[in-house]
Design a protein that fits this description.
The chain is mainly β. The chain has one helix spanning about 90-95; strands spanning about 1-20, 25-30, 35, 40-60, 65-70, 85-90, 110-115, 120-125, 130-135, 145-155, 165-170, 180-190. The longest helix has 6 residues, at about 90-95. It starts with a strand and ends with a strand.
Length: about 190
Protein backbone atom coordinates (compact mmCIF):
# COMPACT_ATOMS: atom_id res chain seq x y z
CA UNK A 1 0.00 0.00 0.00
CA UNK A 2 1.21 3.55 -0.86
CA UNK A 3 0.15 6.90 0.60
CA UNK A 4 1.03 10.17 -1.17
CA UNK A 5 0.95 13.57 0.56
CA UNK A 6 1.30 16.66 -1.61
CA UNK A 7 1.24 20.25 -0.39
CA UNK A 8 2.36 23.71 -1.47
CA UNK A 9 4.44 26.01 0.72
CA UNK A 10 4.97 29.75 0.50
CA UNK A 11 8.48 30.47 1.79
CA UNK A 12 9.71 33.95 2.83
CA UNK A 13 13.46 34.47 2.56
CA UNK A 14 15.51 37.51 3.64
CA UNK A 15 18.98 38.22 2.24
CA UNK A 16 21.53 40.87 3.24
CA UNK A 17 23.31 41.73 -0.01
CA UNK A 18 26.62 43.62 0.28
CA UNK A 19 27.99 45.31 -2.82
CA UNK A 20 30.34 48.07 -3.96
CA UNK A 21 28.58 51.07 -5.52
CA UNK A 22 30.91 51.90 -8.43
CA UNK A 23 28.40 54.35 -9.97
CA UNK A 24 28.49 56.65 -6.92
CA UNK A 25 32.26 56.39 -6.29
CA UNK A 26 35.17 58.42 -7.60
CA UNK A 27 37.62 56.95 -10.15
CA UNK A 28 41.24 58.11 -9.90
CA UNK A 29 42.54 57.89 -13.47
CA UNK A 30 46.16 58.40 -12.38
CA UNK A 31 46.29 55.58 -9.83
CA UNK A 32 43.71 53.49 -11.73
CA UNK A 33 41.60 52.85 -8.64
CA UNK A 34 38.46 54.07 -6.91
CA UNK A 35 38.73 56.68 -4.15
CA UNK A 36 36.26 56.22 -1.28
CA UNK A 37 34.62 53.20 -2.89
CA UNK A 38 31.19 53.05 -1.27
CA UNK A 39 30.21 49.78 0.35
CA UNK A 40 26.44 49.35 0.45
CA UNK A 41 24.00 46.85 1.91
CA UNK A 42 20.56 46.02 0.58
CA UNK A 43 18.07 43.90 2.55
CA UNK A 44 15.95 41.90 0.11
CA UNK A 45 12.81 39.93 0.91
CA UNK A 46 11.92 37.16 -1.52
CA UNK A 47 8.89 34.91 -1.61
CA UNK A 48 8.95 31.48 -3.21
CA UNK A 49 6.06 29.12 -3.87
CA UNK A 50 7.29 25.55 -3.83
CA UNK A 51 5.78 22.08 -3.67
CA UNK A 52 6.57 19.16 -1.39
CA UNK A 53 5.56 15.55 -1.70
CA UNK A 54 5.87 12.57 0.62
CA UNK A 55 5.42 9.00 -0.43
CA UNK A 56 4.97 6.42 2.27
CA UNK A 57 4.99 2.78 1.25
CA UNK A 58 3.68 0.20 3.70
CA UNK A 59 4.90 -3.36 3.51
CA UNK A 60 2.23 -5.28 5.43
CA UNK A 61 4.07 -8.59 5.07
CA UNK A 62 7.15 -7.25 6.86
CA UNK A 63 5.13 -4.85 9.06
CA UNK A 64 7.23 -1.76 8.21
CA UNK A 65 6.95 1.50 6.30
CA UNK A 66 9.39 3.31 4.02
CA UNK A 67 9.20 7.08 3.49
CA UNK A 68 10.49 9.00 0.49
CA UNK A 69 10.60 12.79 0.47
CA UNK A 70 10.40 14.75 -2.79
CA UNK A 71 10.82 18.50 -3.25
CA UNK A 72 9.94 20.28 -6.46
CA UNK A 73 9.87 23.80 -7.92
CA UNK A 74 12.59 25.36 -5.72
CA UNK A 75 14.21 28.15 -7.77
CA UNK A 76 17.97 27.98 -8.23
CA UNK A 77 18.23 31.79 -8.41
CA UNK A 78 16.38 34.71 -6.92
CA UNK A 79 15.53 37.80 -8.95
CA UNK A 80 12.72 40.15 -9.91
CA UNK A 81 10.25 37.27 -10.14
CA UNK A 82 10.72 36.40 -6.45
CA UNK A 83 11.54 39.87 -5.06
CA UNK A 84 8.92 41.35 -2.70
CA UNK A 85 10.80 44.41 -1.45
CA UNK A 86 14.30 45.87 -1.07
CA UNK A 87 15.60 48.34 1.54
CA UNK A 88 18.98 50.04 1.53
CA UNK A 89 20.83 50.22 4.84
CA UNK A 90 23.20 53.13 5.50
CA UNK A 91 26.78 52.01 5.91
CA UNK A 92 28.81 53.20 8.89
CA UNK A 93 31.79 53.97 6.64
CA UNK A 94 29.48 55.98 4.40
CA UNK A 95 28.66 58.30 7.30
CA UNK A 96 32.36 58.97 7.89
CA UNK A 97 33.29 59.57 4.25
CA UNK A 98 30.39 61.84 3.39
CA UNK A 99 29.01 65.13 4.71
CA UNK A 100 26.87 65.15 7.81
CA UNK A 101 23.33 66.58 7.86
CA UNK A 102 24.40 70.23 7.76
CA UNK A 103 26.66 69.67 4.74
CA UNK A 104 29.92 69.94 6.66
CA UNK A 105 32.63 67.35 6.43
CA UNK A 106 32.88 65.40 9.67
CA UNK A 107 36.12 64.94 11.57
CA UNK A 108 37.67 68.39 10.93
CA UNK A 109 39.53 68.18 14.21
CA UNK A 110 42.87 69.08 15.72
CA UNK A 111 44.36 67.92 19.01
CA UNK A 112 45.76 70.60 21.30
CA UNK A 113 48.00 70.28 24.35
CA UNK A 114 46.96 73.04 26.69
CA UNK A 115 49.79 75.45 27.52
CA UNK A 116 48.52 75.90 31.08
CA UNK A 117 47.48 72.44 32.35
CA UNK A 118 49.43 70.38 29.74
CA UNK A 119 46.39 68.16 29.13
CA UNK A 120 45.25 67.27 25.63
CA UNK A 121 41.87 68.16 24.15
CA UNK A 122 40.33 68.10 20.69
CA UNK A 123 38.72 70.92 18.73
CA UNK A 124 36.05 70.12 16.12
CA UNK A 125 36.22 72.99 13.62
CA UNK A 126 33.03 71.97 11.83
CA UNK A 127 31.10 73.30 14.87
CA UNK A 128 32.38 76.83 14.12
CA UNK A 129 32.43 76.71 10.31
CA UNK A 130 30.13 78.29 7.74
CA UNK A 131 29.98 77.55 4.04
CA UNK A 132 31.52 80.55 2.25
CA UNK A 133 31.80 79.32 -1.35
CA UNK A 134 31.05 76.39 -3.63
CA UNK A 135 32.69 75.94 -7.01
CA UNK A 136 31.55 73.32 -9.54
CA UNK A 137 34.53 71.81 -11.38
CA UNK A 138 32.51 70.48 -14.31
CA UNK A 139 31.52 67.10 -15.73
CA UNK A 140 35.03 65.65 -16.08
CA UNK A 141 36.01 66.46 -12.50
CA UNK A 142 34.81 65.21 -9.11
CA UNK A 143 31.90 67.57 -8.48
CA UNK A 144 31.91 70.70 -6.33
CA UNK A 145 34.68 72.15 -4.21
CA UNK A 146 33.42 73.83 -1.05
CA UNK A 147 35.17 76.27 1.26
CA UNK A 148 34.19 76.69 4.90
CA UNK A 149 35.35 79.71 6.89
CA UNK A 150 35.92 79.58 10.62
CA UNK A 151 35.40 83.09 12.00
CA UNK A 152 37.52 83.99 15.02
CA UNK A 153 35.90 82.57 18.12
CA UNK A 154 37.06 82.00 21.67
CA UNK A 155 37.04 78.51 23.11
CA UNK A 156 38.24 77.24 26.46
CA UNK A 157 40.27 74.25 27.57
CA UNK A 158 37.76 71.77 29.05
CA UNK A 159 40.26 70.88 31.82
CA UNK A 160 41.43 74.25 33.17
CA UNK A 161 39.46 76.92 31.30
CA UNK A 162 42.45 78.48 29.48
CA UNK A 163 41.34 80.65 26.56
CA UNK A 164 42.14 79.88 22.93
CA UNK A 165 41.03 81.43 19.66
CA UNK A 166 40.07 79.38 16.57
CA UNK A 167 40.04 80.74 13.04
CA UNK A 168 40.93 79.84 9.45
CA UNK A 169 39.27 77.86 6.69
CA UNK A 170 39.17 74.43 5.10
CA UNK A 171 38.02 73.05 1.75
CA UNK A 172 36.36 69.83 0.63
CA UNK A 173 36.96 68.35 -2.81
CA UNK A 174 35.03 66.30 -3.64
CA UNK A 175 32.28 67.23 -1.18
CA UNK A 176 32.72 65.18 1.98
CA UNK A 177 36.50 64.77 1.61
CA UNK A 178 38.95 67.14 3.28
CA UNK A 179 41.15 68.80 0.65
CA UNK A 180 42.90 71.72 2.38
CA UNK A 181 43.02 72.51 6.10
CA UNK A 182 44.16 76.01 7.11
CA UNK A 183 42.55 76.07 10.54
CA UNK A 184 44.39 77.72 13.44
CA UNK A 185 44.22 77.39 17.25
CA UNK A 186 45.96 80.21 19.10
CA UNK A 187 46.58 80.45 22.86
CA UNK A 188 45.24 83.73 24.29
CA UNK A 189 45.40 83.63 28.09
CA UNK A 190 44.88 81.64 31.26
CA UNK A 191 41.37 81.28 32.66
CA UNK A 192 39.49 84.55 33.11
CA UNK A 193 39.05 85.56 36.73
Amino acid sequence: MEVWCNFDALIDLTFACDYADYNDSIWDSEDKEYINLRKCTAIENHQVLTGFAFRIQFDTAKNRAEKEELVSDVPSSFGQATLIDRKYVPNIDDEIDRPNDDGLCSQITKKVTCQICKKEFEVDFSKYAELSSSYEHGEDQMGAERQYDVEEQEITCPHCGAIYRVSGFYTEYPVGCLNQNETVIKFMSAKKS
